[in-house]
Amino acid sequence: MDQIPARPYAYPLPERPPALVVIDMQRDFVEPGGFGSALGNDVTPLQNIVPVVRRLLDCARRLGLPIIHTREAHQADLSDCPPAKRRRGRGALGIGDPGPMGRLLIDGEPGNQIVPALQPRAGELELTKPGKGAFYATQLHSYLQLREITHLLVAGVTTEVCVQTTLREANDRGYECLLVEDATESYFPAFKQATLGMVTAQGGIVGWVAGSEQVIRALESAYG
Ligand code: C5J
Q1: Exposure letters 200-216 (e unless 16+ CB within 10 A, then b)
Q2: What pTM was estimated for this model as a whole?
Q3: Each residue of 88-126: pLDDT tens digit?
Q4: CA distance 115 to 90
Q5: Is 77 a catalytic residue?
Q6: 157 Cβ inside 6 Å of ligand 1
Q7: Among the options 28, 81, 132, 162, which is catalytic?
Q8: How far lies 91's CA from each of 34, 88, 104, in Å?
Q9: Helices (H), strands (E): how many in the chain?
C-alpha cells in the first residue's frame, strides 16, 4: 500500500484518491487591509505559504484529485453571523465593517475572494462557510460522501482556528485527515506548533502531519 511518510506514523493512501481541502486562502486573511490585519496581525507569514499551497494544488490538478476551496463568508445582511461571533474577534474593525477591500468577511466583496495565485478552477468546489469549521452549515459532508471520499489532505489558514476546527469536524465524521505542515500558517507561530502537536499526539488522535514535498512525492507515486 502506498503511504505518505508522516507523523505520528505513515499515512496510508487509499485506492480512491484523497481530496485536497484548502481552507480560507482569501484576501481577508492573507492580504494587508483585510480582516486579519484589522485584528492587528502581520499577514506576512500567511503570504509565505501561498507558493506551497499552489504546488499542492498543481499536483492535485495533475493527478485529478478532488479539490475543495473554502472561504469564511457571511451574507451581506449578516443573518448567518451569530451576534456573539460579531462581538468577539474585533480589532480596529469587525465582521461586516467596511475596509479597504470592501466589507470584512462578506460574501462577494473583493476581500472575500481567494488570492489570485490560488483561484479555484472549473470542476473544483468552492464553498462559503459561515463558521470556523468547513462542515458546519455547508454541503461538504454530503459532497464527500457522494464521491465516497474517505481521506482528506488539509491546507490553509489559520492553523489553530479554521483549519483545526475543520480537522476536528472531519474526525468526528470519520475522515482520515493529514495536515500539510508547510501549507498551513497562523499569525501566531506558537499556536501553529501547538496545533501540529495536538493533531498528532496520542497516536494521531486527530490525524497526521507531513511536509508538502513528502505529500507530493507520495501522491505522484500512488496516483501518477
Ligand atoms: C479566523 C480562519 N481566524 N480562517 N478564521 O477567524 O482561521
Answers
A1: beeebebbbbbbbebbb
A2: 0.98
A3: 988 889 999 999 999 999 999 999 999 999 999 999 999
A4: 23
A5: no
A6: yes
A7: 162
A8: 11, 9, 12
A9: 9, 10
